[in-house]
Amino acid sequence: MPDIDFQHVSKTFGSKGFQALHDVSLTIEDGEFVTVVGPSGCGKSTLLNIAAGLLQADSGNVMVGKDVVRGPHPDRGVIFQQYALFPWMTVQKNVEFGPKLARVPAKERAERARHYIDLVGLGDFANALPKTLSGGMKQRCAIARAYAADPKILLMDEPFGALDALTRVHMQENLLRTWSEERRTVMFVTHDVDEAVYLANRVVVMESRPGRIREIIDVGLPYPRTEEIRLSDEFEDVRRRVWRAVYHQPSALGPDA
Ligand SMILES: Nc1ncnc2c1ncn2[C@@H]1O[C@H](COP(=O)(O)OP(=O)(O)OP(=O)(O)O)[C@@H](O)[C@H]1O
């Protein structure tokens, strides 16, 4: 059974009826890593927010398993570009937050948090406050926090968008390592074609005005994704295909350009 199933989803904003999404259908299978790329304003975040239950579609449905999405739910962890950590809580307490809400007993939630903190490589910083962490570390903390709430699905909207190129590559590697050990279904929105190809089983390329799916590209490269794979001809071939699909669009400059 598909894990996330967008069924003819449309969404319009504003009194002038700006159509952000038009009849989008997309199936993401259990355990898949799907990235979504496309020009600015093509509706990537809108699509993700509808799956998160933070926005409502005007028509169509999103199914998660057998259920129609009607609002946010702990089975879907959401990670945004801005690190949504509580500044007054340590890394450990931030990561324990979800399990605490779910009334997981103190000892168990501390252990669970510790497991994910170690998994994202923040073992030495469990007692640190967010303000003492770098951007990449904060985002790894956010990933550990999302995992600790034990969601079936991770919805990530440009989570590495604010990071420098080198940190970004390390974050991608760390995320894939975490994902290979603790498999979840991932929908990951990005502007970055390299990132989209490096991470995904499939890349969904969107186009704008109205936002819709232009092409779905199978990456077909094995995991673990090593540096060798990143630098291979096969990777370059897929990257070129995705690049063309994104940049050879009539509206590739986006509505505000
Ligand atoms: N709350 C809103 N009210 C009005 N218009 C909106 C709202 N949210 C999004 N839009 C419009 O819908 C379109 C799609 O926005 P969305 O943020 O989903 O695009 P995106 O592909 O994620 O863009 P970017 O890559 O620049 O973040 C844009 O033209 C945007 O201006």
Can you characterise this structure?
Residues 4-229 form the ABC transporter domain. Keywords: ATP-binding, Nucleotide-binding, Transport. GO terms for molecular function: ATP binding. This is ABC transporter ATP-binding protein. It comes from Lysinimonas soli. This protein has 257 residues and is α/β, with parallel strands linked by helices. It has two domains: 1-75 and 155-257, 3-Layer(aba) Sandwich (Rossmann fold); 82-150, no CATH class. 35% of the residues lie in helices and 25% in strands. The protein has eight helices and ten strands. It has helices at 44-52, 91-101, 106-119, 135-148, 165-181, 193-199, 227-230, 233-247; strands at 2-13, 18-29, 33-37, 59-64, 67-68, 76-79, 153-157, 185-189, 202-207, 212-218. Strands 6-7-8-3-9-10 form a six-stranded mixed β-sheet, with helices on both faces. It has a four-stranded antiparallel β-sheet with strand order 2-1-4-5, with helices on one face. A hairpin with a 4-residue loop joins strand 1 (2-13) and strand 2 (18-29). Helix 2 (91-101) crosses helix 3. The protein is globular and about 50 Å long. The termini are far apart. Bound molecules: adenosine-5'-triphosphate.
SSE layout:
Blueprint: E1 2-13, E2 18-29, E3 33-37, H1 44-52, E4 59-64, E5 67-68, E6 76-79, H2 91-101, H3 106-119, H4 135-148, E7 153-157, H5 165-181, E8 185-189, H6 193-199, E9 202-207, E10 212-218, H7 227-230, H8 233-247
Parallel strand pairs: 3-8, 3-9, 6-7, 7-8
Antiparallel strand pairs: 1-2, 1-4, 4-5, 9-10
Helix pairs in contact: 2-3, 2-4, 3-4, 6-8
Bound molecules: adenosine-5'-triphosphate (ATP).
Pfam families: ABC_tran
Keywords: ATP-binding, Nucleotide-binding, Transport
Protein name: ABC transporter ATP-binding protein
